[in-house]
């Protein structure tokens, strides 16, 4: 059996006001091609399907249209989708009855019965081409505080933090219940959380905090689980010898992810589980200029000139650029120059950071009184503090004109 693990699609994301629907559409087309060429039997989507709790109609059409294409490509494909912290859990589950009839399982919340977690819902059999059950998926969506039994925030004296202990107890009880039903067949789990030791993307992933904790050790997943398909961290990476894995986001969702080798994870379920990273073509180029640190605008313009840009490129496939500038003139003036420059190029501005030079320290001692200070001196000091630069003749002339009119 062949299983495809993916996560963190973030359908509906915008970047500095730019829609990314075209990139998502291209990624989903690539995923459909992969389902066909790799003869995929099951697709696991481990959370953050949408970018926000109120996805647009267009975002929802993208998702359900893609599911329909996947099933047209392979009518026997089994799809299991769990919610992440960005997803509208109940809205994701809303079409569950229809999707289940098509072999699509959508789990937005952890559902319980009087006996505990509803294993009829959360333990899903995977069938091979002869319709025989060959493995099970323990599908666990993003867990909230109320989902962790016995959690006592602030409790002291335990051998590990309260949240870790509660998450460990939940996964152990669910795994034991799954083992009792699986009859020795492999059990794969799905989850959406941060594992300690995983590499996070600066400014990209929203930290999930419960009781001040945001990461749990990978050994909360019992050894009986053959593979754990995780979502939340956008960098593809493996933990616990490859048994616990983040497939990563499908393409860069922020500047921190430009260098990542984005793709999906393919699992061959034969005598064991052998995960393999499959790179997905990047729908749109993304650049950070300069690549590290910051530079004056003139240097960044020179780097822009080295990019292979075509004026014929349609707007929704033009490259994204993040610019990190060192201010050598007032920031508002610099920002206006950048905006005018970008309008002339076939690129889209994803982000602009302007950093002022270090401001020299002021002499020690009490500040002068108003009687000892000229208005122009106050203006010069305020300008220097705001921009890290001395005002030039034009700025001083404008200030003097304004002062003369008061």
Any overview of this molecule?
With 406 residues, this protein is of the alpha/beta class. The chain has helices at residues 21-37, 57-73, 89-93, 96-101, 119-122, 162-182, 297-306, 331-343, 375-387, 393-404, and strands at 2-6, 14-15, 18-19, 42-46, 78-82, 104-107, 112-113, 116-117, 123-127, 133-139, 187-192, 227-231, 237-239, 244-246, 263-269, 273-279, 286-289, 320-326, 348-355. The protein contains 10 helices and 19 strands. It starts with a strand and ends with a helix. It folds into 2 domains: 2-279, Metallo-dependent phosphatases (Purple Acid Phosphatase, chain A, domain 2, 4-Layer Sandwich); 286-404, no CATH class. The strands form 5 sheets. It has a 6-stranded mixed sheet with strand order 6-5-4-1-15-16. A hairpin with a 2-residue loop joins strand 2 and strand 3 (18-19). The mean pLDDT is 88.
Key terms:
406 residues; alpha/beta; Purple Acid Phosphatase, chain A, domain 2; 2 domains; six-stranded mixed sheet; 29% helix
